[in-house]
Every structure is written in C-alpha cells, then in structure tokens.
C-alpha cells in the first residue's frame, strides 16, 4: 500500500510540474533556449510565398570550398565569410559587422547596411531566418 501511495504522489507531482511549466502567454513567442552565438554555415536559400517554401543549394557556395558563413560572437559582433574561386581556389573574404537579437528578430549590420530577419527556427544545430519572402537556412 505504501508503494501505491508513493506512485500516486509521484504521478500527481509530474502532472502539477507539467501544468506549471506550460506558457499560455505569447510574450515569449520566438524565444528559445538555444544560443544564437556561433559559426553558422549557409546550406539552403529560397523563398516562402503564400506558405509554400522552396529551398535549394545556395549559389554563393562555391563547389569544392567550405560553405559561406556568419559567425555571431558573444559581444554582438559578427564576421561573415565568403569563399570565392575567381582569383584563387577557395579564397576567403571576411566582412565584420554587428548583430542584435530581440525576441524572434535578428538584425545583421554589415558595411553600414542593416537587415532585419524573422527567426523562423533556432535550434542547437539549425538557424532559419526570413526577410520578406527570402529564406536562408544555416547549420553549425
């Protein structure tokens, strides 16, 4: 009988814990516990028109080279990398800038130009952002 009481108490505790963790408020919508800081390699680009998403390999990624990337640093600076084989094989050109994140918005500033994206998905391994109908998918 004591074991049965312990099991019932345990089940009630789990139920209460689960209920207390649910968030019915939209104030944290777009927030995740996954960090946005890190080096992200672009793997897909495309569009989302009327809910239909079309993605393909990024034309900016040169065959045989590493993927172009953005490196979002903890101090809100960024480095973007572009591999190009026009002059020499897989030559890397980097650009510095800054970024900021507010909820589900990510603003990247490079060369004096700021672009704000909606964060569609952010996990430990994937970052998907959208600006208008343009979609970009990055992986770590």
Automatic annotation (TrEMBL):
<dbReference type="Pfam" id="PF13648">
    <property type="entry name" value="Lipocalin_4"/>
</dbReference>
<protein>
    <submittedName>
        <fullName>Lipocalin-like protein</fullName>
    </submittedName>
</protein>
<feature type="signal peptide">
    <location>
        <begin position="1"/>
        <end position="24"/>
    </location>
</feature>
<feature type="domain" description="Lipocalin-like">
    <location>
        <begin position="36"/>
        <end position="129"/>
    </location>
</feature>
<dbReference type="InterPro" id="IPR024311">
    <property type="entry name" value="Lipocalin-like"/>
</dbReference>
<keyword id="KW-0732">Signal</keyword>
